[in-house]
Amino acid sequence: MSKRFPDRLDPWRFADLGKEVSGELPVEAFVRLRDCLMQADGEVLFNLSFSRDEQRHARLDGNVRTELTLECQRCLGALRFPVERRFSVVFVQGLNEAERLPEDLDPCLVEEGVVDFRELIEDELLLALPQVPMHDTDVCQVPHEFVSDEELQVSEPEQQENPFAVLSALKKDRH
Ligand SMILES: [Zn+2]
């Protein structure tokens, strides 16, 4: 899929043209989101649809879809967290305009006439994150089990290999 769309776009122009922008971006492209993740893997799929409503507001209806790897706060293990989020915003140029909007419309403040759509997508992803990510209790592993499993996998081959390597090095020296 093409990744060539503008990072920053003029929302009023896009609304006038009824533009639709869709594509995918790697999770690791979202710097603020990355800080909340255990691992920045996978892709974010998005679809942004711009339009003018009856009041001539420039409006965006979007959806974002991805699966994020969070850290379970109970066992510190990886937790796969699917996100599918729909959102709608109305673009405004200042706080005055934002205050005049009906309450059911979510304002998006535009600075210098352009919107960074990655920031917009990232904001929505951050809003979708749970405050305290945790596995369901039936799949969550208690911390000591998780750590020992990992230690077994990492340290066992080393313990077997190292003495052997030392021994064979000694034998070579003697011959
Ligand atoms: Zn857990």
Automatic annotation (TrEMBL):
Signal peptide: none annotated. Coiled coil: none annotated. GO terms for cellular component: cytosol. One of its GO terms (biological process) is ribosome biogenesis. Keywords: Ribosome biogenesis. It comes from the Bacteria. Belongs to the DUF177 domain family. Plays a role in synthesis, processing and/or stability of 23S rRNA. This is Large ribosomal RNA subunit accumulation protein YceD. It comes from Candidatus Thiodiazotropha endoloripes.
